[in-house]
Fold Tetratricopeptide repeat-containing protein.
Amino acid sequence: MKSHLSLLLIIPLFLFSFDAIAQDKLLGKIDFPNSGAEAAQADFTEGVKFLHNFEYGDAARAFRRAQEKDADFVMAYYGEAKSHNHPIWMQQDRVAAMAILSKLGETVEERQKKATTQREKDLLMSLEVLYGNTEEAKNLSKEERDDLYMEFMKELHEKYPDDHEITAFYGLSILGTAHEGRDFAIYMEAAAELFDVWNANKEHPGAAHYLIHSFDDPVHAPLGLPMAKAYSEIAPAAAHAQHMTSHIFLALGMWEETIDANIVARDVQQTRQKELGENLTVCGHYTWWLQYGYLQTGEEEKARQVLLKCYDRIQKEPTGGEKWHFSVMRGHFIVDSESWVEVAEWTADYDEGNRAGQNYFFTSALAAIKMGNLEKAHQNLDKLKEVPESPDRNIQMNQIKSLLLIEEGKNEQGLQLLKETAVAESELPIDFGPPTIVKPSYELLGDVLLDMNKYEEAIAAYEKQLERTPKRRRSVLGKEKAKGLASR
């Protein structure tokens, strides 16, 4: 396998203590004017860069260091409070954010008095809107506050059109309003604003990062390739920056680059966790993408080793996130290797009512069908029914139901349900990353049609899947097999 050496060769540059080398050269380049003390500037700037790179824990630590050096540094409290809002991930901890803002004062008015410039008052007010403290924002849901915050940031952008930090955070606020999943209109609106920052500063971590998010789907990914190629060098000390490049690579089916990016991301993350005395993440976002990359290049043994480390963690005291990742990683491994018998080797306990077990039960049901154990398939389908309802769950349930109908000899009924299921999945927003529905529906439809000797229909199904998941290995192999059989 070819190696993306430009990524792998930079690993030694950041296997160091974060206090040892100036972060200016390791997290990107920004300019954020403020009224804080000179002694606190480096920490504050580092905090803002970490915010742009979605390294929220390190951002909060940097802002607290700035506060220690200047207790009246309003923007340092602003930054720490902002670290508890995670756009795109659709996460927010309002209680934690308000505990920080309250250090400046108990009311909006008291906090406004602490800011010494109008720009800082305006930025601080943006958080009052975001966290529901203004008259207009009170009693609104998080989603409604996200929309209101975006409108406020738009006003700030119009007021300070040449301010790159305000523009970047405005672009991010637009992305943060896509509450129903990827919306091309929203994402392109964000990109239009972010390009101004990118064109002026090719080292701005936020511009590169948020543009990658704007373009990380198969249709628009070519537009994000320049940012993906640049971002790893813009912020080599940020694990998330290293990973983010693979959002574009994966959307384009660039598997070797996807693998290399997530090796680097994993290693940077684990180095930082060692410094902080934290448990190493062996069952998380970057390892999930890494394993998926290996499966797409056919390197099943490497994928197995990634899954094995995750499995070892699951046998101890895993977090909910670790259990979710094991469930989806197990699913990808079994589905993409088609090693159905191995489903019995990767076992764990899941509460039927917990979303983390969704892919666990689905994969177990699918493997049981493949091995002719319909009773076990029904048992896992029943467990899947107990998982909280979602479009993904409904699709996976219908996939299993359609296969069971076919196994019962009800071919037309089962095939019709599977075709409807494939259409339903195609209408969902595209995942930015490995498919969370571990056996994509059009690919499954292609497999079924192939088994029924309906080769032309199978080819069409695989082609539809490849539009959604370019160069996905199982769809490519299925299409090639169907074409070969159709030509006989």
In short: The radius of gyration is 24 Å.
